[in-house]
Amino acid sequence: MSDSITGTSDVTSDSREVVFEARGLVKTFSTGRAGMRRERISAVDGVDLTLRTGEALGIVGESGCGKSTLARMLVGLEVPDAGTIRFRGRDVTAGTRDDRRWMSQGVQMVFQDPYTSLDPRMTVLEIVSEPLVATGRLRRGDRRGRVGELLSLVGLSPDLMERYPHQFSGGQRQRIGIARALAVEPSVLVCDEPVSALDVSVQAQVVNLLRDLQRRLGVALLFIAHDLSVVRHVSDRVAVMYLGRIAEYGDTPSLFSSPAHPYTGALLSASPVVDRERRGRMASRVMLVGDPPSPASPPSGCRFHTRCPAAQPQCSLEVPVLRHPEGDPAPERVAACHFAEDVLAGHAPARSLELHPAG
């Protein structure tokens, strides 16, 4: 089943070009050794995404919900089992050599761990210029000037280009990774939890740098994280994932101020609250029951129903579709919840499902 978060685009006034588009993406993995019983892990199950020129889309969810697998499919590091990916109108799903060359010109990735994503045997000059040389955009003799520009762009001195990765801090290494990603002037930048491996003291610096670059260069930003405060700061729109599917999608202010899905509400309730006004609105924390289900055996119906504080018998039987809640003033919001209107209004029904029914 495809979790569409794009069906409301015709009711918005956003006329920016759609630069990146995914439809019905599915990815499963097999576990276990040869000769043993194998399990099929459903990492991503029918996800749709649309990314417009110059906007920032955040994807958030717990660890294991499929965020990183989705990112790897979008940049061509994983081939979907089903669904399509289009970049600037061209279908690049198959991941052929021509597709990869086309994608590398316009879609680049900033990886999660700056300690393993940089080759320790290469200098910064070699690391940042490698994509330029590989794509034929720059001769080796012309590297220093362009690399110096890119390092200055991310807040590093060009004098550092002869150093090796081990001579830099984590935040500096991530800036080098960002410079490398920007070298070929991409139109889409996919960031897979780019600050989660960094000290808290430098996370804000890197996040602010990415947001500033996104606005200055007009690059579309797909920002994946589990930290809601980071996603809120970076994103124009947010998609919330749970167990391989989209649970809710909407513009950032609406989603953070009035979630329409119980899972979104639980995530917001569990996150640290700084401003007093929001603390007052969320005085009672949402407590989830049970443990996250295994992606090898996802629940029937709504995948969140085994932990949802508002689950009803219908939730275990029927798969909810992403839809716009009736009366919701946020035009782009969609939520995969049978009771989205009640959740949005703040009076969702009390749970009437037993987590472990007898018999």
Question: How is this fold's topology laid out?
Answer:
Layout: E1 18-31, E2 39-52, E3 56-60, H1 67-74, E4 82-87, E5 90-91, H2 97-106, E6 107-110, H3 124-134, H4 143-153, H5 170-182, E7 188-192, H6 200-217, E8 220-225, H7 228-234, E9 237-242, E10 245-251, H8 252-257, H9 262-270, H10 276-281, H11 313-317, E11 334-335, H12 340-345
Parallel strand pairs: 3-8, 3-9, 6-7, 7-8
Antiparallel strand pairs: 1-2, 1-4, 4-5, 9-10, 10-11
Search tags:
single chain, 359 residues, alpha/beta, seven-stranded mixed sheet, four-stranded antiparallel sheet
Description of the structure:
There is one protein chain. It contains twelve helices and eleven strands. The chain is of the alpha/beta class. The strands form two sheets. A seven-stranded mixed beta sheet has the order 6-7-8-3-9-10-11, sandwiched between helices. Strands 2-1-4-5 form a four-stranded antiparallel beta sheet, covered by helices on one side. Strand 7, helix 6 and strand 8 (about 220-225) form a beta-alpha-beta unit. The longest helix is centred in the middle third of the chain and has 18 residues, at about 200-215.
Please provide the count of β strands.
11
* H-E order: EEEHEEHEHHHEHEHEEHHHHEH
Question: Which strands sit side by side, in order, in the main sheet?
Answer: 6-7-8-3-9-10-11
Overall mean pLDDT? 86
Query: Terminal Cα separation, in Å?
Result: 31 Å
Largest beta-sheet details: 7 strands, mixed
User: Total number of helical segments?
Assistant: 12
How much helicity do the residues have? 25-40%
Shape: globular
